[in-house]
Amino acid sequence: xxxxxxxxxxxxxxxxGFVDIGDLVTNAVVGSRFGMSLAWVVLVGVxxxxxxxxxxxxxxxxxxxxxxxxxxxxxxxxxxLANLGASFLINVMTVTAEIGGIALALQLASGVSYMLWVPxxxxxxxxxxxxxxxxxxxxxxxxxxxxxVVFAVALFLLKPDWGALAGQAFALSVPAQEGAGVYWxxxxxxxxxxxxxxxxxxxxxxxxxxGWKIKDLLQSRINVLLGFPLGGFLSIAIAGCAAxxxxxxxxxxxxxxQVALPxxxxxxxxxxxxxxxxxxxxxxxxxxETTLSSGYTLAQFFGWSWGKFRRPAQAARFHxxxxxxxxxxxxxxxxxxxxILVTEYxxxxxxxxxxxxxxxxxxxxxxxxxxxxxxxxxAVNIAGVIYLFIILVASLAAIPLMIATGAGA
Amino acid sequence: MNLNDILGSDVVDGDGQRLxxxxxxxxxxxxxxxQLLSQGRFVGIVVSPRTASSFLGxxxxxxxxxxxxxxxxxxxxxxSFLVLWEDIAVLGSREVGLRPGFTAYDARLTR
Lengths: 409, 111
What we know:
The structure holds two protein chains of two kinds. Chain A is mostly helical. Chain A has helices at about 1-20, 20-35, 40-65, 65-110, 115-130, 135-145, 150-155, 160-170, 180-195, 195-210, 215-250, 255-300, 315-335, 340-365, 370, 380-405. The radius of gyration of chain A is 20 Å and the shape is globular. Chain B is built from two helices and seven strands; from the N terminus they run αβββαββββ. A seven-stranded mixed beta sheet of chain B has the order 5-6-1-2-3-4-7, with no helix packed on it.
């Protein structure tokens, strides 16, 4: 019974933890411009993150090494440092976006400008990172984040023409009013939102934090294989809401209130309240994950002691680096840059940097010296190589498309 | 001298002909115990004709999956060979010179 509860908790946490500001914004933007015609990308992204998380979780459980320890060891200090630089920059960008997301959600709830909420968000994130136990932090934000199910409920309440939505989803074609370049640019953004590197840093380091052993692999596999697809389903519901309400009205999403508009229209104030709760929890959870990931990657590369299972004084550099990252994120927000814009760029840069972390994990997950008999099976490897190709293509195409389309304008 | 100084430097034979770059350095842990650990013994350098980049572990024969990746990396490093310490004449920071009549061993690691 206790085990069953553990599994259920893990799945629910994975669902709530899957959606972050990147998914919220990108799915809404895409839904409002392309309808459901990019829903297939979410599917591709979810399968990809399942594959990636499964491999890195297995490497962590079997070898006791988290992702960046593996990267440093396999790529050596020089290539590893370049890799760290790119990953770390994107982490900081994502931290910035998530803190902005918390503040925007609180603005939506209170009417007070988000800029005034930023310092509170910073303080709250730091306090939790510093004081709260790993498992509590994970489970609370994940469970409260589940209230984002309100997007799926709202979609039903809106009574859409399901046939038309499915038609858009399965047509697999560029909508007439948009160009092919923009379509593919947003496809990459959506892919990056579903498959962000920080999720993997966090997932594999979390496996070490929670002391996973080989016997825990089954449970982690269930969490990932059920939780992430259900999280992907939420992503599609976000796009669906935007496709039903915003697309016909010609509203393109540039703020969080527009993301929330369909939910408010469908379910009124109560639904809006639930939505805000969900957004705060999801962005707060993701802010914790990205902040921790910044600390994890730095500490794992430089060989500092890390982890929330240690007292902060015993992992001082780890905790100091996270404080610096949080302050850097807030400094960026203090310039007045639009958090939604930061989010839109962060998901694309995530897609660009993805091969850097994916390739070493794919290689090490196949290395019998590390993994013994727990190396990748045949099916996982076939999928792994197909995804390596997809990830490389997305990464290489992102910058040219960004320039050609003026970042999707 | 740091290992980083050797890695990536050009390798030339006795006549000054360029053979490739140092892509790896091999050690054996079979010497007597030092203070805490067995001391590493410098066995030799791996010379790769095209690239000084990492083998990513594919120099070990037991690592053979995913197949396309293993093929790609082995193809990229084709013609790599191991030169033992005693066949190295000069170990400079820019250039590594080999003795005339050096022996090129298979760079692959079997189990």
